[in-house]
Amino acid sequence: MKRFLSVVFSLLMVVAVGFAFAGCKTGEYRMWGIKVGDKETKFKDLTEAEKQLYGISETANKSYIKLKGNDAFVIYEIDQNVDNSKFKSETFTYGTYAIYDQKLFMYFAPATNENVHEEWLMRDGRIYFDSGAGFSLIYSK
Amino acid sequence: MRKNSLAKRVLAGFFALCLTLFVSIGMAGCTRGKYSFVGIIGPDHVTVLKLDEIEDETERQALEVFGYSKSEIRLMGKSRFEWKFVTGSERFSETTITSGEYTIEGDKIIFTYSSTGKAEDALTSTCDFVDGGIVVYTNGFFLVYRK
Question: E strands within B10-140?
Answer without folding.
Answer: 33-41, 72-76, 80-88, 93-105, 108-113, 123-130, 133-138
